[in-house]
Amino acid sequence: MTNVTKKKNYPRKKLETLKMLKQQEKNSKVKVKAPIVEALKNAYENPTYQFHIPGHTKGNGSLPEFKKIIGAKALSIDTTDEFDGLGTLHPATGPIKEAQELAAKAFGAKKTFFLINGSTAGNLALAMGLTKKGQKIVTNRNCHRSILTGMIISGAEPLWLIPKKFDEWGIWGNVTPESVEEMLSKNSDAGMVWITNPTYEGVVSDVKSIAEVCKKYNVPLIVDEAHACLWNFNNHLPTTALKLGADAVVHSLHKTGGSMSQSSMLHIAENSKLDCDAVEKALKLLHTTSPSLMLLASLDAARANLDSPRGRKQLERAVQNAKYLRREIDKLEHIHHLRPDFGYKTDITKVFIRDDRLSGKRLESILEIDFNIEVESASDAGLLILSNIGNTRADMQYLVKCLQQIDKTNYTDICYLEKKKHMPMLTPIIKMTLREAFYSHKEVIPKEHAVGRIAAEVIAECPPGIAVLLPGELITEEHLPYLVDYDTIEVIK
Prior knowledge:
Blueprint: H1 12-28, H2 35-45, H3 64-70, H4 72-76, H5 94-107, E1 109-115, H6 118-130, E2 136-140, H7 145-154, E3 157-161, E4 165-166, E5 171-172, H8 177-186, E6 190-196, E7 203-204, H9 207-216, E8 221-224, E9 248-251, H10 253-256, E10 264-269, H11 276-286, H12 293-306, H13 309-330, E11 335-337, E12 345-346, E13 350-355, H14 360-371, E14 377-378, E15 383-386, H15 393-408, H16 434-438, E16 442-446, E17 488-492
Parallel strand pairs: 2-3, 2-6, 6-8, 8-9
Antiparallel strand pairs: 1-10, 4-5, 7-12, 9-10, 11-13, 13-15, 14-15, 16-17
Helix pairs in contact: 2-12, 5-12, 6-7, 6-11, 8-9, 13-15
């Protein structure tokens, strides 16, 4: 008698679930392409006799203590983009070119440039390549100092958007489409809108509506999206500006995307009319001619990971960890988290918290000294916690346990013994252009004599990299609490 295997009759819904799980399993086994990583692996497995830079020669010329810490393997692949079939950065060739093309596809860009001096290099290149002396640029007061630096170099002049201040939280709010339109309607010579989204603390602006305003006035929109490189890979996160009408976007992959410090990306959007060649020419001026393959490979690896089933699972875990943290904070008496309750959105993975009884700096010191916890940053009002793709649920549970203990403990607030403020919230009084002030005759004077003088330098503590003083700005009494660590100030002579 022939044995016949009886077919199992699963309910339709269950059958669909089984198919989905099977497909996920299949996808997880698909090899993720990472051209630079693969080229470095090949170079490591096929060593050569090296008579070229870098001079440490695969770590043989390094300090033994350093070699032990960083690892012999890391030093053996610290090479340049001229050898071992690794390609070149400018112009992009070989595996580097292929990696940039894969990144453009993953992020939804027409063209992507790898950056090895942070998003700063991307902002500088955009300013140098696309703006000129005297050109008016609409930008927000809480922009990163690199945008100011770019304007100093190009000679462009900012038209300041002053976002709403969340005084209770001590932070800047979002940029509104109405404020952008008002600025463009009053300044017909404005050549570009350049905004930061999200803010350092995760407050999100309505980029889609802002892009529509820019289109109406026929000006390009650039978005410094340094803190939002994850947005294209999870539906619980806001939509990237690349999909909402921006012409160019910078992403700091090293901040939250998993690449090594100092590595970022610059994207030109699909429908952008910006001059890509001009941007690349500016990057050639800014980038080293000996780029780190380790940094470039880390960008390649970060993109490959985020665009893989493994990376998307990590990101979903980061989102769920953030939700868990927020739910647990809601149960506390004195500690609160910033919510999207006032007509704006937030990036859920950026959890800005405050304690009714303690300054942000004091809360930071308690977490660090008493509980061995390091947070992203702290200001007068609160502190910022990132739920990263590398954090586990156990990490978050420990943080919650510590916050619960702090909430029940009568800590004293000693922060303001310093008489220092940490988050610039001032509207600038501009007396000279950025470039004019930066290149004027200057002198260095004691800080206590600086009130009433015109600043000649950018003063911005990082994080968050927002300027306390701009070149050309009138120094007032209001600035002094932000300048406690400065004995002298550079001013116009």
